[in-house]
TrEMBL record:
A single BP term in Gene Ontology: L-tryptophan biosynthetic process
Protein name per UniProt: indole-3-glycerol-phosphate synthase
Domain Indole-3-glycerol phosphate synthase intervals: 2-250
Keyword Lyase attached: yes
Pfam families: IGPS
Source species: Sporomusa ovata
MF term (GO), any: indole-3-glycerol-phosphate synthase activity
Enzyme kind, highest EC tier: lyase
Keywords: Amino-acid biosynthesis, Aromatic amino acid biosynthesis, Decarboxylase, Lyase, Tryptophan biosynthesis
The EC number(s) this enzyme carries: 4.1.1.48
Catalytic activity: 1-(2-carboxyphenylamino)-1-deoxy-D-ribulose 5-phosphate + H(+) = (1S,2R)-1-C-(indol-3-yl)glycerol 3-phosphate + CO2 + H2O
Pathway assigned in UniProt: Amino-acid biosynthesis; L-tryptophan biosynthesis; L-tryptophan from chorismate: step 4/5
């Protein structure tokens, strides 16, 4: 699944570059102000709420709300930041970032499969405050380079790991924000115990976010107690019968 998405992303980036060369986008880019990491550090408990309408494994998750409506519900109910999928495998589009940024004040994370620096520029040009960098799909050299470019663009990186080997690689860089993905991107199965396992190996000065498979306030509470700074939640929010109430549950249970 991951390989297929990455391959399609490479093709999409190549096509986008032909359409709009990097030189052109570079002119439109205004540097950000690291609003994402600031919001997370200032929060006692950070909830990054994801607008995820479609998943490649499960198909349509939500057709009750648009990306914009979800972002507004999250913003009104205690979320710290909003995550917006821009990859076509999740039915996302880079313009969704533009729309969300125009409507809510919260910092926005661009949820992409970043394999080329071109995507860092398009994310920032759309207004993203942060991007996801998935350790499994980049080399060590790319990771360092992407972190550097994002910093120059005033954008934060949430660097995602799923295994101990990836965590060790990432902790050799100066990445501050590390996301432990509870989902195995090869099989798409999730278990929050992945966070408990890897947390023991995290250096104290890294800010850790637990990602995926978080079902409710009880899971959030356990993760907070274990020592993570926050959570990234998509599916449980978008399938909830009351999205606003679920957002509040996740936000409040972590601060108990
Ligand atoms: O919907 P969930 O299980 O709450 O997960 C959200 C988020 O963590 C997930 O969308 C995600 C995190 N990293 C990824 C990388 C690729 C695809 C998806 C993801």
């Amino acid at each position: 699944m991951l390989d297929k998405i990455v391959m399609q992303t490479r093709l999409a980036v190549a096509a986008a570059k032909m359409d709009e060369p990097l030189a052109k986008i570079e002119n439109q880019v205004v540097a950000g102000s690291f609003a994402f990491s600031r919001a997370i550090k200032e929060a006692a408990w950070a909830v990054i709420a994801e607008c995820k309408l479609v998943s490649p494994a499960k198909g349509t998750l939500c057709n009750t709300y648009t990306v914009l409506e979800l972002a507004q519900i999250y913003a009104g109910n205690g979320a710290t930041a909003v995550s917006v999928h821009t990859n076509t495998a999740f039915d996302g589009h880079i313009n969704d970032i533009v729309k969300v940024k125009a409507a809510v004040k919260l910092p926005v994370l661009c949820k992409e499969f970043i394999i080329d620096e071109y995507q860092l520029y398009t994310a920032r040009a759309a207004g993203a405050d942060a991007v996801l960098l998935i350790a499994a799909i980049v080399s060590d050299a790319e990771l360092v380079r992407f972190l550097q470019i994002a910093r120059e663009l005033g954008m934060d990186c949430l660097v995602e790991v799923h295994t101990l080997a990836e965590l060790i690689r990432v902790q050799q860089t100066d990445a501050r924000l590390i996301g432990i993905n509870n989902r195995d991107l090869q099989t798409f199965t999730t278990t929050i115990s992945q966070t408990f396992t890897l947390l023991k190996h995290c250096e104290p000065d890294r800010v850790i976010i637990s990602e995926s498979g978080i079902k409710n306030g009880e899971d959030a509470q356990k993760l907070k107690t274990a020592g993570v700074k926050g959570i990234l939640v998509g599916e449980s929010l978008v399938i909830a019968s009351d999205v606003a109430a679920m957002t509040r549950e996740l936000a409040l249970s972590g601060s108990k």
